[in-house]
Amino acid sequence: MQVANEQAVFESTDVSGTVIGYFAPKMFQGMAATGYHLHFLADNKSIGGHLLDFKIKEATVYLQPFTSIEQHLPIDNQKFLNKDLDIADMHDQIQKAEG
Ligand SMILES: [Zn+2]
């Protein structure tokens, strides 16, 4: 997966903003990136994206448990249906991108 190999990494300090994401148990590996998957957007929109690491000085935390998951697949797309996926390679690339 080329995107994971070319992921740009930025660092910033003393930024206020919003972190949003989810926690997926290991049993959902492949359907989602398991563990914590968090994204950030600065209040002034100066920086944002997938979070690899961070420290929080002060935060308000909201949690929402999910009791169901829906996945929509493009079953009318022949290219999707004929795609030969290398699942092991996809898993390795997700691990590299998500840390
Ligand atoms: Zn992400």
UniProtKB/TrEMBL annotation:
GO biological process, one term: acetoin biosynthetic process
Tagged with keyword Lyase: yes
Alphabetized UniProt keyword annotations: Acetoin biosynthesis, Decarboxylase, Lyase
A GO term, aspect molecular function: acetolactate decarboxylase activity
InterPro entries per the UniProt record, alphabetical: Acetolactate_a_deCO2ase
Catalysed conversion reaction: (2S)-2-acetolactate + H(+) = (R)-acetoin + CO2
Pfam families, per the entry: AAL_decarboxy (PF03306)
Pathway of action: Polyol metabolism; (R,R)-butane-2,3-diol biosynthesis; (R,R)-butane-2,3-diol from pyruvate: step 2/3
UniProt-listed Enzyme Commission number(s): 4.1.1.5
Domain of life, source organism: Bacteria
Family to which this protein belongs: Belongs to the alpha-acetolactate decarboxylase family.
Name listed for the protein in its UniProt record: Alpha-acetolactate decarboxylase
Encoding gene, per UniProt annotation: aldB-2
